[in-house]
Amino acid sequence: MKAENIRRVVVRGTNWVGDAVMSVPALKELRRVLPDARITLCTRSWAKGIFADADFIDDILVYDKQKNAFKGVWQEAGKWRRCKFDLALLLNNAFESAVLAKIGGVKRRFGYRTDGRGFLLTDSIPVPLWKNERHEVFYYLNLIAELETKLYGETQVWKHEPNIALGVSEIRKDVARKILAENGIDLSEKFIALCPGSTNSRAKRWPAESYAELADMLQRDVHSQVVLIGSPDELEVSQKVLDASRTKPILLTGKTTLAEAVAILSVADLLVTNDTGPAHIAPALGTKTIVIFGPTRPETTRPFSDLAQIIAKPPSCAPCLLRDCPIDHRCLTAISPLDVFALS
Fold first, then answer.
1. DSSP code of 15?
2. How high is the pLDDT of residue 233?
3. How far, in Å, CA of 248 to CA of 261, rounded?
4. CA nearest 162: which of 54, 306, 344?
5. Residue 198: its pLDDT value, please?
6. Cα(286)–Cα(36) distance, rounded to whole angstroms?
7. Residue 54 and residue 177: Cα distance in Å, rounded?
8. Cα 141 to chain center, whole Å?
9. Cα dist. 233→153, 225, 281, 283 in Å?
10. Mean pLDDT per 10-residue section of the chain, whose length is 344 residues
11. How far apart, in whole angstroms, are the C-alpha atoms of residue 126 and residue 318?
12. DSSP string, 101-157
């Protein structure tokens, strides 16, 4: 495998927002390793909201799940065959992505030896022994290090700090400011975003009542405007926060696309959030962020940025990594609104 022969690269991206942001350093290193290749990111449709202004990829190929999984893979493979990719880099661990690369006609298929898919890969990389001990950022970077070593005999990946930064164009920021203004936000004053939901785990959610009390404290004591953000699936919990609060924050949950939410976070003064996608997006945009951790491990999945502050009071049962707490949610109820307010 020679670098000059790799003209078209497809990267099978991750399936969750937070993981997508944690893969940014790897994508930037891939651009450094293959500066002249055309890099296509194959991922979910929501990813356009994150990568719309990224200069380290050239195209986004949307691949959303279908009810008939086999039909979806076969149709996507047809797109890959027409694109005539020289190399597929699989950032996710799924068997399906290896099948897609194989029937998509990609000659070199590079990925981790996970989910029984090793026989489908031309370059099957063992999962590093440190996988569960280091931040997830390094797991994705390790694939690029292995690729660079195959191409050039050595790697430069580990010689500098991973770069998680994402950019948002001024045009998108102007759209965000317009949305905020139309919803009653005075842009000359400080505003704080709260993300009380979590689409993939109810166990990650700090109580709605705690968010409501925090919203009251922020608006009353530091004269901040508070906005609730999130996806349509998180509208119910945001509504609970709104109902329980006295000062009534602005409800934008479910009213924006992910691209618009990203732009809003880029102009916010602070985000307070559970361990979910926006927790990774906001600090990558340069926004101060407070992340409330409960059942998950901040050592491996916290936002990879000095702009993110972590608050956690883990009990003996944490980290359980469960999606629903079978007992009393003590990992999150132990954190008071005053604890979070003190960090803001």
1. S
2. 92
3. 20
4. 306
5. 86
6. 29
7. 21
8. 15
9. 47, 24, 18, 23
10. 93 94 98 97 93 95 85 93 97 96 97 97 97 96 98 96 95 96 93 91 91 96 93 95 95 96 97 96 98 92 96 88 83 94 93
11. 28
12. HHHTT-SEEEEES-TT-GGG-SEEEPPPTTTTTS-HHHHHHHHHHHHHHHHHSS--G
Q: Determine the Cα–Cα distance for residues 322 and 301; give it in Å rounded to an integer.
A: 15
CB of 59 closer than 8 Å to CB of 10? no
pLDDT at position 221 is 87
pLDDT score at 94: 95
**Helix H segments across 153-233?**
170-182, 208-221
Q: Which residues of 232-246 are buried (b: 16+ CB within 10 A; e: fewer)?
A: eebbebbbbbbebbe
Both structure tokens of 162: 């991973």
pLDDT of residue 297: 87
Helix/strand/coil for 192: strand
pLDDT for the residue 78: 95
Report the 3 state secondary structure along 47-87. Answer: HHHHHCCCCCCCEEEECCCCCCHHHHHHHHHHHHHHHCCCE
Question: Rounded to a whole number, what is the distance in angstroms from the first to the last CA of the chain?
Answer: 51
CA distance 48 to 259: 7
Q: What is the DSSP letter of 35?
A: T
Q: Is the pTM of this model over 0.90?
A: yes
How many other CB atoms are found less than 10 A from the CB of residue 7?
13
C-alpha span between 139 and 42 (Å, rounded)? 19
